[in-house]
Amino acid sequence: MNQPLSTGQASPVRQLTTTSPHRTVGGIFIPGLTPYSAEYESYNEKHAILSLALCHDVLAIKSQPTKTHYLKASGKVGYHIPDLEVIIGTGESLLLEVKAIENLLEAPNVSKYRDLAKHYSQERRPYRFLTNVQIEAKPRFQTVLLLQRYLSSTPDPAKVDIAYKVIDGRVISIDKLIEQAQLSLAEIYTMIAKRILCIDWRQPLTHQSYVCTPNQPFRGLLIEDILNSTRFCGLLESLALGGEPTDQSLLAIAKNWRRSDNLPQLWSMVGGFVPATPISNLDEIRFFRAAHYRRAYAPGCNDQTGGQE
């Protein structure tokens, strides 16, 4: 039923269409982690690859790795190509479906992926959902965006030895490590991105953050840390096992998580509270795609015409 990657295969089983103007497509090659350029067709998939690349228990990342045929509830045979396959430290492979949670939990998609999850469960193939809610969990997501530029860098072994000697099994701030080891901030960020040094992923990454060698005491980011983040992890895990989501309250929150997370607040604008007409209507939260619409709603701009004459 499954068509796994052969040892000599050097490309995904499905080629992405790069001519569509409505898709964000591209590829990421990370030495030592992606046997070929890991392709993505959405920002969610791109950020998923970057997050997984920083996990200490991820050994390989493959995009569109297998093609599986399964039986739908209607009795028809369908096929499925998972977005990613991750090889973890135990040598096991994990298939990942990367989706926006608000779309995943629409009734037709729930039915589709429930049938698919049952098939993978019968085949005893580990299968999980990785959604934008988990990927964008803060402050981890900001750290991923900061470290992504160092994923393809190669740290100098001599500098790594110096860093280890200065750290000497203790926790030290990045500021002090720079001073005592005569390293640059970029070199330390490279060591973190390449999983040579560990940080506390529960805290924002700054030049004042603390670092250590692996498990002294920080153990580094793990894939389960991402999958188990946010209050929706139980719901997503149940669906990945072929279960039916039943908590209607949690479903409603999940479908509107981005909107509720971005409601204008009194002190949410740059410069604090200004006693004037609000730039957004609290009763009508709208998200504009066109730049000339968004420009009119920028902080300090009271023009509500959309920037058009």
What are the low-pLDDT stretches, counting only 5+ consecutive residues below 50? Answer: 1-8, 262-276, 282-290, 302-309
Number of helices: 13
Give the overall silhouette: elongated
Q: How are the strands of the biggest sheet laid out side by side?
A: 4-7-8-9
Q: Give a short account of the largest sheet.
A: 4 strands, mixed
The SSE order reads: EEEHEEEEEHHEHHHEHHEEHHHHH
Oligomer: single chain
Fraction of helical residues? 25-40%
- Distance between the first and last residues' Cα: 59 Å
Rounded mean pLDDT is 82
Computed structural class: alpha+beta
Q: Determine Rg (CA atoms, Å).
A: 22 Å
Number of E-type strands: 12
The proportion of residues in beta strands is 15-25%
Brief write-up:
The protein is α+β, with helices and mostly antiparallel strands. The protein has helices at 43-53, 101-104, 107-122, 132-135, 140-147, 157-167, 174-181, 185-193, 223-227, 233-240, 248-255, 257-261, 291-294, and strands spanning 2-3, 26-28, 38-40, 58-63, 67-71, 77-80, 84-88, 93-99, 127-131, 172-173, 198-199, 210-212.
